[in-house]
Amino acid sequence: MDYEHIRLEQSPAAVATIRLNRPDSLNALNAAMVDELRQAVEGLAGTGARCLLLTGEGRGFSSGADLASGGGLPDDAGLALEKHFNPLIEALFALPIPIVAAVNGPAAGAGCSLALAADIVIAARSAYFLQAFVNIGLIPDAGATWLLPRLAGRARAIEMMMLGERIPAEKALEWGLIARVVEDEALESEAVALATRLAQGPTIALGLIRQLARNSAHLSLSDALAMERAGQRDAGNTEDFKSAVLAFLQKRQAQFNGR
């Protein structure tokens, strides 16, 4: 399928790359782009993709929602969330494969939320994260109020959302918002290497890990143990588990096929 506002590519290594492709606007998220993102994410099933790499074209990851294309002030500022942004975030969370975000430059507003929805976020040293909603009298959205306290803790999340100040990549790493910071020129290669490593892993187990990690924050210990038990049953029934145990016994490197 051809897209106007994003580029979707799949490598021989089973990495699907979605690149936000409105560089003239710092990849500002209009409704059409958000809908294309959701369609692309939902369409990955059955394509053989075993990891999703999400990044931006040009000088930034995303400057957030495209305020310039709205045609004036909306009567209901939450309607775009209901119709476009929220279904995208739900689709990302439902994806049964790992997601890597490579943040090149600004990740602001809903663009920040989009990046932080990934399982592993790797940022260029010049990148920054910004929840700018308060600066225009709005609240953080696209999952930010759920994600940020879980990643950075309540105190830092409140500071980020209420002050609306840039969080440089190094501080984002210190706060636990992201996993890695690399030099700008190394971002693409580092992100591709990481995504390729995940794509070559035990895909079903990785999908269960991301599901359990997402759910753990609101589960009791007993419920978490029960979910681990169910997940381990499913992982233990995979070809990957059986072949990896055999490889371990034979003292050779395991090769995973994602089944």
Major sheet attributes: 6 strands, mixed
Count of domains: 2
List the helices and strands in order.
EEHEHEEHEEHHEHEHHHH
Can you tell me the CATH class of the largest domain?
Alpha Beta
Number of strands: 9
Cα-to-Cα separation, first versus last residue = 26 Å
The CATH topology annotation of the largest domain reads as 2-enoyl-CoA Hydratase, Chain A, domain 1
Which band does the percent of strand residues land in?
Answer: 5-15%
Low-confidence stretches: none
Structure characterization notes:
It is built from ten helices and nine strands. The chain is of the alpha/beta class and about 260 residues long. It has two domains: about 5-200, 2-enoyl-CoA Hydratase, Chain A, domain 1, CATH 3.90.226; about 205-250, Lyase 2-enoyl-coa Hydratase, Chain  A, domain 2. A six-stranded mixed sheet has the order 1-2-3-4-6-9, sandwiched between helices. Strands 5-7-8 form a three-stranded mixed sheet. The longest helix is centred in the middle third of the chain and has 16 residues, at about 80-95. It is globular. The two termini are about 25 Å apart. The mean pLDDT is about 90.
